[in-house]
Amino acid sequence: MKLKLIVIGSGMVGARLIERILAKSPHIYDIRVFNKEPNGGYNRIMLSPVLAGEKTIPEIMTHNHDWFKQRDIHLHAGTEIREIDSINKTVKTDLGATYQYDKLVIATGSSPFILPVPGNDLPGLVTFRDIRDVNQMIQYSKYKQKAVVIGGGLLGLEAANGLIKLGMEVTVVHSNNVLMNMQMDAVSGELLKKSLTETGMQFCMNAKTVEILGDSHVTGVKMADGRVISCDLVVLAVGIRPNTTIAKKIGLEVNHGIIVNDQLQSSNPDIYALGECVEHRGMVYGLVAPLYEQAQVLADTLSGQSASYQGSAISTKLKVTGINLFSAGDFHDSNDSESLVYKDISQNIYRKIVLKDNKIKGAVMFGDVTGSNWIFENLVQQNDMSAYRDTLVFGEGFLPLANKDLEKEKVA
Prior knowledge:
5-stranded parallel sheet
């Protein structure tokens, strides 16, 4: 008899977990998957190209209904788990059906944060999180002219870029004076703003939204300083919150996310969790790479192997509307660190490496991310970079000649 494994959520990390389990131990589990969305698994990162008209929904599907069927996995799409009985080890769906499990994995992800301001429930306000949101924005763009995107992070800028390509006039409202302030410093943030302004994107910086205006539909956005921007559509992109509701209902230990140990096990020994809904050693991760690392560890654990998730070093390497960006670690100036900087503003290139005791503390790059993987490896390993200082800011391809000769000797 196979053990019964239930996975709540078939998003990118839930689907990756199932892939890894099938690759390692294809005959241990009878797997049943529940997904609130009516789809199987799709690449959420590719929603931006779908919004911009560069991709279609079928093109970003990674695990459609047939994928699950061909592997004898029971997929319940468009179905929500409402109750978990951790004593009798059953789950109950919104349709009233009950299913038994031996092991349960919660991979419920996260939800968009909704600003607690008047008008936040008006028609014409959408988030940017799933296929339904993208379809709504595409429909609005067909008969609406002006959009406000609240949030100048990656998601907000991608939404703004997509809406501009759909023909809308777009203003990005950001609470900070630096765009993508979690990944960019003041110089790179300003270069990004300049580049995006040239595409037609407008900005309202250092602005706190206090009200969504309108009676029966969105008509504008009001700021704390009195500024008002008129619009027909508001897109909220101000962050996410882990989906922990079902975990709290059954008394699992929850802080910001569901608390898990190094085996991704919750406070209940037969219930595991991974992805954006979990908190591990005080950290909640929202990037794909750490979540895939979690999926690998949990697949090993559920396959009976010894595995341990130690947390993830985080770097951000991405392309925002065609512009290459990279950041890692603490790239801000401080009294106990020194910064190596290369700037070519005419070419929109900016590279900055922050050192402390001759070890890389952080880095940020805009326009040219050459050698960023090598920089990140040395940051993680905390290698002494004294020998590379003169050319460090240019990356691995620009190592001093003496050091290149040394590397050849080592190889020989």
